[in-house]
Amino acid sequence: MNNAMEVDKLKIGVVGAGSWGTALANHLALKGYRIDHWVFEPEVKQQMVTAHENRMFLPGFTLNENLVPSNDIETVVSDKNLVLIVVPSHVMRITTEKMADYLPADTIVVTASKGIENVTHLTMTGILAQTLPNIPARNLAVLTGPSFAKEVAQKVPTVVTAAATDLDVAEVVQAVFSSPYFRVYTSTDVIGAELGGAVKNVIAIAAGIIDGLGLGLNTRAALITRGLAEIRRLGLELGAKFGTFAGPSGVGDLILTCTGDLSRNHTVGKKIGEGATLKQILDEMHMVAEGVKTAKSVYNLSRKLGVDMPISHGIYSILYNDLNPMEVLGQLMTRDLKHELDVNQ
User: Fold this and answer.
1) What letter does residue 116 receive in the DSSP assignment?
2) 143 - beta bridge partners?
3) Tens of pLDDT along 209-233?
4) pTM
């Protein structure tokens, strides 16, 4: 299976049928793979079978006949060469625990979920290492980068990164997912790729708040720039490579989620800036805004490590301590003056 010539013959399962999971599963189905697709909701699965559409999470797109939905996770992951997991980060652990007994030991397991677990502060591959002990670490991979599900479904040209500690594994993932409209680069910096994808959701909430408050483009540009500095600072502390944060999984994903109207995290922030409470916002959403939970993980992890992340801490205070956004902005703008680059980096 680590031979690129065998890629077209791989048996693939996809776990998770939200907007991103459905878009990626259909992308692979359009490439000619038969995709066994695990769907949590029975009504969504039935809809996908009868109408060939996921009207709850990705309405308006006809699903390819190669995509076979199922509510049985054993069927979806058994006897597969590659399994893609695209579930909300807070259910990654419980979902993958259910898969553990059915995965062959040589399966490549790819996560396209973005987040940091609240209690353990583990990234998604960290969770997989615990819940799937029979899968070697070299076979755990990440697919991440600036990519809205709707635009991938529309075949809008998109660039992402496939990261695995073993470059051969990353290249298999690259070959499986690449198409004329979906370009995949490889990386061996798994932690850097994951942190870029997770923490940018917190910064995107901040960007939404800026827009909701009616502040200017100057403010948003400053937010993105200093937000990237925070992501990089945490990443380097955890062993990531500096250059990763200049790539698709770093600045690319950050720009997308901080400026795109399709970003759920940006939407949450914008509504907060306009005066809504977090509870009101979440009660109205049926899809997950990962940054809300990740804000808590980043706050606690950065404090434990002693990493300076004032924007992220400000978002935590707004979400969980009901601090006024303008008060947080004032605190950020009047902090001690500093050099723009971190010392010794």
Assistant:
1) B
2) 162
3) 999 999 999 999 999 999 999 999 9
4) 0.95
